[in-house]
């Protein structure tokens, strides 16, 4: 019953943002593979250039364009496809698809939406229709009343009774949602929610109930399976994206499990899903009573997790079902012989833990609740809960070594923390046990099921047992084995038994390791096979555990395997771009006749797709675990330079354990990483750098600043509050910062660097072979230096650099490559001011911008770097970026809307959660595509400019003139208004937020959405924020008005939309840029 | 947690798996089989089909939600599949000493001890499962304190006789009278019938039911080798001469198949899982089913009046048969589930439907 389609458009999810991250690269890639297998021509629209799905080997045609109705329609007109997939690009693709459907666009161009009918999707997205639909089949949903005004919300809440929960319809990951225990809270919450959606829901609160999810698949023959169920460790009330989640469920009886399973299938049949669907339940912990909370009629974060948790390729299968296949007509891609119509049986447990980066933001609340704030996640696999939770807490990568043996939490009120959870909740449980709280008390405070708490208590009690020993010789083997079975790392054991201090930890770990090996206490490798061993698996999806006696696979140990270390959890500063690098390295390893071995534990990635490599170890990227694997594999070598900072940090330590590292030698990596060593190297080479010093007293700091002058960049090595790194402009600020953030001492020195203002920032992404540069790309930031390179808007090829600057940058790159004898990828950041070039940083690994420059240049730098590392011949590419007739722009995506109260400003610490990269005929074309891709809109008529520093006012004067000429209505705050008036630009004065009596006022204009674009430039780069600016910025975000906080970027964007209209933007696929 | 005693599992091929004891600390022997279900240990342990077998749970975390209450309903326990544990021993990887569930009466360990059944934890159940998969069914024994016992092959014994009701019992007061031939029936078959306006007459495996007053026959599941139950097969053969609807489950499928001219053989390692896919023959309709069987029906030698009804999508084995003209059908899987997926419970409706049709036909005549 296969549908006849020849050409299919797939909508991607755009930039990574909170609530919509790498999982859609995975699902989109799978969908494309499924279609290609059928000989279907695939056209992908996704501006996220760092994804694997936008690689040349996957889709036949790629458009790096915004996933919005306008652009998708243009592509449909141009490509004339007969089918479209909208379920593989998250809420972004779904919302866009629904809008196009409602506008009749699909009908107009004869495009068939494959998979679940759009009307069914609409039925699940509108909560009232959805609840009605479920009521038709006697399925319970929470009492819920949809309202369109605040007054109606208050009335509805009276009927249901407080506490209630407010939800906004049609939003990502619960944006605008939250609990309210009284009318006052409701009024505030509802106000905010209405800025995202015209409809909000007032619902009964089921706080404390269990939260359980099912992933259901249905084919066009009405055959259904549930691929996986998952249970949240955190009770209802904490968004599933913020919860620790286990699969399969642990505390549900057979009757509960199958009752909910049966309901899920009933729901999916009734709605008419064809493909994949997620059903979320609240389950009463005291009976079998339940409510259906949510149904997602598309691939979701949970479905990506379920795919990784079970080995069942949900997205791949869903795409096939969209073409009309029945599940029974497809094969299980793990066994290759059994049917795809089955439900995976797990013989292990997985645990997902979110990764938050709340410390990166000023002002944000650390509480977790019904809206999502986490930026990434990890998945741990093992055979006991103790094992997976400890593995998982290490994988999250925020300095924790498991559930215990961490640095104690500071000033934590454990009881408060347990009842009002923050991102530290799990550690507050550890602290609770430490303080003598029992399981029952912690359960009452947190509502976490006692079963999970009992297991955590086991870990806590074993810790106390271990602490009684002071050396390994006296530690009984049985106890050591039990510790390993409960997920204790060698680090934890060194700390607990050997009492190893932090600075000698490497030695401690080595001692524990060699003792273990002597006592034959070693992990075993187990295979994920979807059928719990019932049928043999044909793929190598592996994990390590101490809860087993033998390996599932045999190791060739012939030196023909190459281990590639992946990037770990997505976080601010490291996300899908390193997955692209990892996948590309693996592909080159495969092509060159080696067996690729991938180690990674991020369920949102393509690199952890078992069909990408020969062997996938879904496991930790710690020294201990990598050594466990290299001991078994005896590989040719390990690639540590494509997965970002986590593998890079292992270089020296692996090297000291005699593990062969491919590419640049770890000693040379260390020479670049170590600030002191690198600085002397630059001096030797006569390469300039901003003056800096590592200082151990406040007096020395001031003496140094007297030399270099303000502003300076201050980086404490020990941080109390969130402010890790800051630019300070004067004495007062410096004093304040040092008091606030840092503890200056010999043990905790502070690095102070000269900060050069108004300087251009330049990036070099390059590959060298034995010290000789073989390929390179130079790009420039639109913003002046001072904005973190991950938050900057990057232009490649550079459009505004002097030829002399480029020449000098090239020369410096060659010198450094030679001096460090680089073999592999490297990245440099430099400052340029009047042709004076200073090097800020050099990383001997792939960088965030590698996929962007590789794709714009159409030279795969990772493939080249991997060949170099494999010691294969490489040729210099035949073209250079000077010859490109088009421009690429990489723009950051921010998720401030989800981070309540965070100040949306840019600084030296990175804050963006994702990025896009677009290609245009010219600079303005590319700027517009990129800005529209990250959510900006071309303003209709009103622009507010509120600029702090004079030089930014001057910068923006030209923009203001352009806007005026284009007929825009300009608004400005006081100083800006006066400055513009003096320079002949008329603006309407809007008063500051702290003068609410003066009219007209900025706040009213923002609240009433009378402004289409806000340009607010903070006075200085310090985070010591003035209330007024903060209020303007924050409310712009809260009321969903596009906001720009950098003058250079603002003028680039304004110039672009003043010079070009929507109609002028190129609708060209990647391959059309030649 | 008190330090658990050492205990081991010894297989007939010489393999030894050492673990810790958490049930009754004693030695027993049986056939070692694995089940890949992720839930339902109280149901599995009380399933009479496991008589004579040592059960290996491939899901590593067992005991999490304790053991349910002993509440009774309609004269049978509400949450169990029979009145006692039938497995000879239980083998798991990680036993959860702490349990948490609103309906839990006690821990799994306590229950095993009460019923005098040994349990082992700390076993590499995956390695054990792969061994069973590769070598086929193996006899094994759990050995505590070096108290050796002989290997025991349950296939030679009449196990149904040991697990079935000793005498006729009637349940319910519904309008349709169902004769339940108990060769080791799970109580959920009873519950599924009683929910459908029936009176269930439960009779022992070898009961002569030609004298009973009934509207339809339910052939139950049960343990062991179907060839052993000639008395039941003879009774079924007689019933097949008539026109009253017959519905067989699992062993019931095999016995009806034999009565219809088919043969049986033992699978290499059986189907014991909650995730077995079956397809209704001649359709694109598929179901996920709960299964627990070591023997399987060969349909090649079935009489020409019979045809396959369901087939297993993984290995193509028979999953059910039906008579071409008469209201007789059976399934190798368990439509009553418990434990496992409930996709095929509608077959009980089909059975009642056949009874109603048969009654209506009779009335018309």
Instruction: Flag low-confidence runs of chain A.
Output: none
CATH class of the largest domain in chain B: Alpha Beta
Beta-strand content bin of chain B: 25-35%
> Could you tell me the number of beta strands of chain A?
38
Overall mean pLDDT score of chain A?
93
The largest inter-chain interface, given as chain pair and residues per side, is: A-B, 57 and 54 residues
* Major sheet attributes of chain A: 7 strands, antiparallel
Radius of gyration of chain A: 28 Å
Summary keywords:
heterodimer; A: 1074 residues; alpha/beta; seven-stranded antiparallel beta sheet; 38 strands; 36% helix; globular; B: 365 residues; Glucose Oxidase, domain 1; Rossmann fold; ten-stranded mixed beta sheet; seven-stranded mixed beta barrel; 8 helices; 23 strands; 21% helix; 34% strand
Give a concise summary.
The complex is a heterodimer of chains A (1074) and B (365). Chain A has 1074 residues and is an alpha/beta fold.
Describe this protein's structure.
Chain A is α/β, with parallel strands linked by helices. Chain A has 35 helices and 38 strands. In chain A, strand 27 and strand 28 form a beta hairpin. Chain A starts with 6 loop residues before the first strand and ends in a 15-residue tail after the last helix. Chain B folds into two domains: 151 residues, Carbamoyl-phosphate synthase small subunit, N-terminal domain (Glucose Oxidase, domain 1, 3-Layer(bba) Sandwich), CATH 3.50.30; 205 residues, Class I glutamine amidotransferase (GATase) domain (Rossmann fold, 3-Layer(aba) Sandwich). In chain B, strand 3, helix 1 and strand 4 form a beta-alpha-beta unit. The interface between A and B is large, with 57 and 54 residues.
């Amino acid at each position: 019953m296969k549908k006849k389609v020849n050409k299919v458009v797939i909508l991607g999810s755009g930039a990574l943002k909170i609530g919509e991250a790498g999982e859609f690269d995975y699902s989109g890639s799978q969908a494309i593979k499924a279609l290609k297998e059928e000989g279907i021509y695939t056209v992908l629209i996704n501006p996220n250039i760092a994804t694997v799905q936008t690689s040349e080997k996957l889709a036949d045609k790629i458009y790096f364009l915004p996933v919005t109705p306008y652009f998708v329609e243009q592509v449909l007109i141009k490509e004339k496809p007969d089918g479209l997939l909208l379920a593989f690009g998250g809420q972004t693709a779904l919302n866009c698809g629904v809008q196009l459907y409602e506008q009749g666009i699909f009908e107009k161009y004869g495009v068939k939406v494959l998979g679940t009918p759009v009307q069914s999707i609409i039925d699940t997205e509108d909560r009232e229709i959805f609840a009605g639909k479920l009521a038709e089949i006697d399925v319970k949903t929470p009492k819920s009343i949809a309202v369109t005004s605040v007054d109606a919300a208050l009335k509805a809440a009276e009927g249901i009774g407080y506490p209630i929960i407010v939800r906004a319809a049609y939003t990502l990951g619960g944006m605008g949602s939250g609990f309210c225990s009284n009318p006052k809270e409701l009024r505030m919450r509802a106000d905010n929610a209405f800025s995202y959606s015209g409809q909000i829901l007032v619902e009964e609160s089921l706080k404390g109930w269990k939260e359980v999810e099912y992933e259901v698949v249905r084919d066009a023959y009405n055959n259904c399976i549930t691929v996986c169920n998952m249970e949240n460790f955190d009770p209802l009330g904490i968004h599933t994206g913020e919860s620790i989640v286990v699969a399969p469920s642990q505390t549900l009886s057979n009757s509960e499990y199958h009752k909910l399973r049966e309901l899920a299938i009933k729901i999916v049949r009734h709605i008419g899903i064809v493909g994949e669907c997620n059903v979320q339940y609240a389950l009463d912990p005291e009976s079998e009573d339940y409510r259906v909370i949510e149904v997602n009629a598309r691939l979701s974060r949970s479905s990506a997790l379920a795919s990784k948790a079970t080995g069942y390729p949900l997205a791949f299968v869903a795409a096939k079902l969209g073409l009309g296949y029945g599940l029974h007509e497809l094969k299980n891609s793990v066994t290759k012989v059994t049917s795809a119509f089955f439900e995976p049986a797990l013989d292990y447990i997985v645990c997902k833990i979110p990764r938050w980066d709340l410390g990166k933001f000023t002002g944000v609340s650390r509480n977790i609740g019904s809206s999502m704030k986490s930026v990434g996640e990890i998945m741990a696999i093992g055979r006991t809960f103790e094992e997976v939770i400890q593995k998982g807490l290490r994988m999250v990568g925020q300095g924790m070594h498991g559930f215990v043996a961490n640095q104690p939490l500071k000033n934590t009120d454990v009881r408060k923390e347990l009842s009002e959870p923050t991102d530290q909740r799990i550690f507050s449980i550890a602290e609770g046990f430490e303080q003598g709280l029992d399981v029952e008390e912690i359960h009452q405070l947190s509502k976490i099921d006692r079963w999970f708490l009992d297991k955590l208590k086991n870990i806590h009690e074993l810790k106390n047992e271990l602490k009684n020993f002071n050396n390994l010789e006296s530690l009984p083997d049985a106890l050591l084995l039990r510790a390993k079975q409960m997920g204790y790392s060698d680090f934890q054991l060194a700390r607990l038994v050997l009492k190893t201090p932090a600075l000698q930890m490497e030695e401690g770990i080595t001692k524990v390791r060699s003792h273990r090996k002597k006592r034959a206490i070693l992990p075993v490798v187990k295979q994920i096979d979807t059928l719990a061993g019932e049928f043999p698996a044909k793929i190598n999806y592996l994990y390590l555990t101490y809860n087993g006696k033998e390996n599932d696979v045999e190791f060739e140990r012939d030196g023909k395997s190459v281990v590639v270390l992946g990037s770990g959890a997505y976080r601010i500063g490291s996300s899908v771009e390193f997955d692209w690098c990892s996948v590309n390295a693996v592909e080159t390893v495969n092509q060159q006749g080696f067996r690729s071995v991938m180690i990674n534990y991020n369920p949102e990635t393509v690199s952890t797709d078992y069909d990408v490599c020969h062997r996938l170890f879904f496991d930790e990227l710690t020294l201990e675990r990598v050594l466990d694997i290299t001991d078994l594999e005896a590989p040719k070598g390990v690639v540590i330079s494509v997965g970002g900072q986590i593998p890079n940090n292992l270089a020296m330590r692996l090297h000291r354990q005699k593990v062969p590292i491919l590419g640049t030698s770890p000693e040379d990596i260390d020479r670049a990483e170590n600030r002191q060593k690198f600085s002397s190297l630059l001096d030797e080479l006569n390469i300039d750098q901003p003056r800096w010093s590592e200082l151990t007293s406040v007096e020395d700091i001031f003496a140094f600043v007297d030399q270099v002058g303000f502003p300076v960049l201050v980086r404490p090595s020990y941080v109390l509050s969130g402010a890790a790194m800051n630019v300070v402009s004067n004495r007062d600020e410096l004093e304040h910062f040092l008091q606030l953030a840092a503890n200056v001492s010999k043990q905790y020195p502070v690095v102070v660097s000269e900060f050069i203002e108004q300087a251009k920032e330049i990036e070099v992404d390059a590959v060298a072979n034995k010290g000789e540069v073989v390929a390179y790309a130079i790009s420039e930031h639109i913003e002046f230096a001072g904005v973190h390179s991950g938050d900057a808007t990057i232009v490649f090829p550079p459009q505004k650099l002097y030829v002399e600057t480029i020449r000098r940058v090239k020369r410096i790159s060659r010198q450094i490559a030679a001096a460090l004898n680089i073999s592999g990828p490297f990245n440099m950041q430099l400052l340029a001011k009047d042709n004076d070039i200073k090097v800020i940083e050099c990383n001997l690994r792939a960088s965030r911008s590698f996929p962007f420059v590789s794709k714009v240049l159409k030279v795969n730098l990772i493939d080249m770097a991997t060949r170099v590392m494999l010691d294969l011949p490489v040729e210099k590419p035949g073209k250079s970026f000077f010859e490109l007739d088009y421009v690429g722009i990489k723009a950051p995506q921010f998720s401030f809307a989800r981070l309540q109260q965070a100040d949306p400003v840019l600084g030296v610490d990175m804050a963006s959660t994702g990025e896009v990269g677009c290609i245009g005929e010219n600079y303005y074309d590319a700027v517009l595509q990129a800005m529209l891709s990250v959510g900006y809109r071309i303003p209709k008529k009103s622009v507010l400019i509120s600029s702090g520093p004079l030089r930014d006012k001057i910068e923006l004067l030209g923009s203001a003139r352009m806007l005026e000429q284009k007929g825009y209505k300009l608004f400005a705050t006081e100083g800006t208004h006066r400055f513009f008036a003096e320079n002949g630009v008329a603006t309407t004065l809007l008063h500051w937020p702290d003068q609410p009596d003066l009219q007209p006022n900025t706040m009213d204009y923002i609240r009433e959405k009378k402004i289409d674009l806000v340009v607010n430039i903070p006075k200085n780069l310090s985070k010591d924020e003035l209330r007024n600016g903060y209020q303007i910025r924050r409310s712009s975000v809260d009321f969903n008005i596009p906001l720009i906080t950098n003058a250079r970027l603002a003028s680039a964007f304004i110039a672009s939309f003043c010079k070009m209209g929507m109609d002028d933007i190129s609708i060209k696929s990647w391959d059309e840029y030649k | 947690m008190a330090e658990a005693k050492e205990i081991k599992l010894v297989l007939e091929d010489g393999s030894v798996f050492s673990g810790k004891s958490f049930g009754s600390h004693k030695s027993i022997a049986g056939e070692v089989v694995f089940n890949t279900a992720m839930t339902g240990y109280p149901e599995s342990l009380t399933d009479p089909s496991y008589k004579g077998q040592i059960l290996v749970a491939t899901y590593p975390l067992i005991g999490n939600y304790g053991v349910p209450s002993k509440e009774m309903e309609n004269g049978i326990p509400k949450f169990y599949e029979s009145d006692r544990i039938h497995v000879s021993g239980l083998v798991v990887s990680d036993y959860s000493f702490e349990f948490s569930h609103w309906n839990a009466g006690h821990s799994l360990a306590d229950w095993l001890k009460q019923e005098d059944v040994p349990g082992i934890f700390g076993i590499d159940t995956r390695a054990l499962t792969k061994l069973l998969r590769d070598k086929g069914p193996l006899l094994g024994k759990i050995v505590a304190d070096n108290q050796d016992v002989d290997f025991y092959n349950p296939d030679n014994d009449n196990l149904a006789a040991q697990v079935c009701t000793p005498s006729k019992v009637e349940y319910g007061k519904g309008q349709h009278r169902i004769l339940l031939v108990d060769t080791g029936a799970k109580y959920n078959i009873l519950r599924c019938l009683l929910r459908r306006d029936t009176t269930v007459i439960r009779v022992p495996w070898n009961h002569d039911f030609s004298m009973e007053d009934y509207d339809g026959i339910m052939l139950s599941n049960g343990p062991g080798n179907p060839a052993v139950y000639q008395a039941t097969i003879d009774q079924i053969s007689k019933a097949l001469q008539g026109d009253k609807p017959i519905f067989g489950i699992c062993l019931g499928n095999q016995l009806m198949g034999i009565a219809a001219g088919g043969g049986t053989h033992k699978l290499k390692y059986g189907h014991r899982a909650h995730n077995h896919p079956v397809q209704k023959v001649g359709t694109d309709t598929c179901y996920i089913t709960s299964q627990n069987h070591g023997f399987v029906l060969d349909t090649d030698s079935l009489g020409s009046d019979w045809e396959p009804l369901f087939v297993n999508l993984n290995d193509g084995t028979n999953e059910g048969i039906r008579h071409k003209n008469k209201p007789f059908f059976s399934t190798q899987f368990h439509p009553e589930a418990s434990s496992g997926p409930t996709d095929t419970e509608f077959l009980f409706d089909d059975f009642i439907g056949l009874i109603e049709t048969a009654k209506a036909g009779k009335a018309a005549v």
